[in-house]
Amino acid sequence: MTQPILSAQLRAALDLAERGIPVLPLREGKGPMGNCRACRKNACGGRPNMKTPGPCTCAAPCHAWAAATTDSAVLTSAAWTPAWRQAAAVAYHPGGTGLTVVDLDNADAIAWARQNLPTTRTVPSTRGEHWIYLGTMSSPNAVRPGVDIKSLMSYARWLGPGTGTMGPLPDVVRALAVKEPTAARRASSPVTVTAPPGGGQCPHRSPAYLERGIAMAEQRIEEAPDGIHRTVYRMFLAVLSAHGRCGCLTEVHIKRLFTAAQGRGESLRHCEDAWSNAAAALGM
Fold it and tell me: If pLDDT is split at 50, 70 and 90, which confidence band does 199 have?
């Protein structure tokens, strides 16, 4: 029986998949293949807004990064054949293989990286370079001029193995994903939270409600796999939103939150700034 002729893109994809790298086809213009008719406009509910983690369950290469797979049977299936016929390139899911790509889009971005980021494996791109680190994080775009991050729930074009020794994902890259309100007022130490004018009455009735909230915030800070700055800010915001206006919080509670954050490497100053920013965001 005559074996089908494989396109160059599919051959490359199968080679990467065999090495454990989840891959998907890209159309002309480096975009993912459009969703199939059943999944158009996410009618299937499978990957609304591309934010649901996990692989795509559709037989066709739908839902962009979520379609990335290492299964050669899927890659060569009849459902994927039309996509490979149209494919102009191969992409991979960096987060799916434990990596983060710092996508540097121009010479200025490369110059910034050379001055500010630890050396790691690099791959030339059409207009710049991909710097690849071991470790995963969220995947924000435009973290600074000409710099995107591609890791979890994202895809990057496969441009070759690159050169250099791959280094661990540094905190300076993780910090690029943190965006806090710009209007901040510094908190003094120790920080206190008081009831609003008029003596707001606590609606929680039981101290157990507050204790569960503080314990949950501590746990999420302590167990955050990455993006610790953002996690600390969000947990402070959640606690203040629930308990900041009724006078429940004491300095003991706040110290517990600060201790959890400092246990993950946050400085006292950053804790104070994050608390102050959260209070400002809530109009306190």
Answer: very low
Report the pLDDT averaged over residues 192-200: 41
Query: Nearest-5° angle of CA 273, CA 282, CA 229?
Result: 35
Burial of 207 (0-12, 13-18, 19+ CB in 10 A): exposed
Give the pLDDT score at 181: 47
* Region of 63 on the Ramachandran plot (φ > 0 left; ψ -120 to 50 alpha; else beta): left
Q: Residue 58's Cα: distance from chain center in Å?
A: 23
Q: Which residues pair with 26 in a beta bridge?
A: 32, 89
100, 171 contact by CB (below 8 A): no
Per the listing, tokens 């370079």 go with 129
Question: Who's near 64: CB < 8 A, 6+ residues apart?
Answer: 24, 32, 50, 155
**Of 13, 283, 37, nearest in space to 158 by CA:** 13
Strands (E), the chain: 23-26, 89-92, 99-104, 121-124, 129-134, 147-150, 156-157, 167-168
Tokens encoding 218: 């501590």
- Cβ–Cβ under 8 Å, residues 107 and 128: yes
Q: What is the largest CA-CA distance in the chain?
A: 85
Q: Does the model's pTM come out above 0.70? A: no
Question: Rg of the chain over CA atoms, in angstroms?
Answer: 23
Question: For position 236, what pLDDT does the model report?
Answer: 86
Question: Which pLDDT value is given to residue 196?
Answer: 36
Mean pLDDT of 257-275: 84
Three-state secondary structure string covering 98-113? CEEEEEECCHHHHHHH
